[in-house]
Amino acid sequence: MMGPVIRSALIIVILLVAVPLVIVIIASFSGGERLTFPPESLSVNPYRALIGNDSIRGALWRSLTIGVQVVVLSLITGVPAAIALVRYKFPFRFSIGMYLIIGVATPLIASAFAFLVLFTKAGVLGSLWPISVGITVVNLPFLMFSVASSLYSIDPRLEEAAATLGAEQVQTFLFVTLPGIMPGILSGTIMVFVLGISEFVISLLLSTINIQTLPIAMFASLRGPPPPEVAAAAGLYVIAALLVVLTLTSLKSTEQFFYRSD
User: Fold this and answer.
1) CA-CA distance, 63 to 128, in Å (whole number)?
2) So what's the pLDDT on residue 258?
3) Model's pTM, two decimal places?
4) Do 170 and 204 touch, CB atoms closer than 8 A?
5) Residue 169 and residue 159: Cα distance in Å, rounded?
6) pLDDT for 70
7) 52: burial class by Cβ within 10 Å (0-12, 13-18, 19+)?
8) Quick check: 255 and 183 in contact, CB under 8 A?
9) Span 194-222, average pLDDT
10) HSE (CB half, 13 Å, CA atoms) of 236?
11) 205-232: average pLDDT
């Protein structure tokens, strides 16, 4: 049983997480012309205004595009890297592993400034993909850690048995290794997607006036009285996160989702 101290600490943590989310959701339905809390009245007008606001709607679409690009880049690079570092022995393996996770250990502003100098020299600023590359480099370790954790949980004898039964390396990977690491891929994908659509510092330094992301647009709106559609955009972030969590927790377990029992 949990002691009173642990129980109190748990309640405090839950409140610290839940209260800001509840405030954002309630404020996103504010019926006034300006964003206030508590709202003067409740209305869906902020969401209607969001749909009609080309600037905020475009920023939201660009953030979602960056999130998808970050997921694709992370999967292409992070999954093979995690498998290689966990399953194979090769020279400088430890050094390469440290190099791949250095992005998460470096101060974010330092990484963002380095990307700014690099992409300015390359003359590629003004597109979304440099922002996606920068965010991927910084957040790649989260996907790698998740996949590596799943790899360590796989019994190596399963892959050995598949090889003994005549399965080729590709078949072993597709039908034994991949289903085993899929929970890690799923959780890592969700993590890097959420980090991608909400990244602020890298987006601030690498974006231009024509390709502002939603966090940058929301920050710019704070220079004056924030319009209700900004709260509606924040509400969409929260609602999307809740839908992801509810979808995952509605499954009896992540393993049962990816494994079938005959």
Assistant:
1) 9
2) 46
3) 0.78
4) no
5) 9
6) 93
7) exposed
8) yes
9) 83
10) 23
11) 78
> Other C-beta atoms within 10 Å of 242: how many?
12
Phi, psi (5° rounding) for residue 30?
Answer: -65, 135
User: Are residues 242 and 226 in contact, defined by beta-carbon separation less than 8 angstroms?
Assistant: no
String of DSSP letters for the chain: ---HHHHHHHHHHHHHHHHHHHHHHHHTTB-SSS--SS-SSB-SHHHHHHHH-HHHHHHHHHHHHHHHHHHHHHHHHHHHHHHHHHH---TTHHHHHHHHTHHHHS-HHHHHHHHHHHHHHHT-BTBHHHHHHHHHHHHHHHHHHHHHHHHHHS-HHHHHHHHHTT--HHHHIIIIIHHHHHHHHHHHHHHHHHHHHH--HHHHHH--TTS--HHHHHHHHTTSSPPHHHHHHHHHHHHHHHHHHHHHHHSS-HHHHH----
Contact 237, 197 (CB under 8 A): yes
**Beta carbons of 97 and 74 less than 8 angstroms apart:** no
Residues in Cβ contact with 205 at an 8 Å cutoff, skipping those fewer than 6 apart? 112, 113, 115, 116
Q: Which domains does the chain have, with CATH numbers?
A: 62-215 (1.10.3720.10)
Sign, CA torsion 256/257/259/260:
positive
How distant, in Å, are the alpha carbons of 3, 129, 201, 223, 250 from that of 135?
41, 10, 10, 26, 30
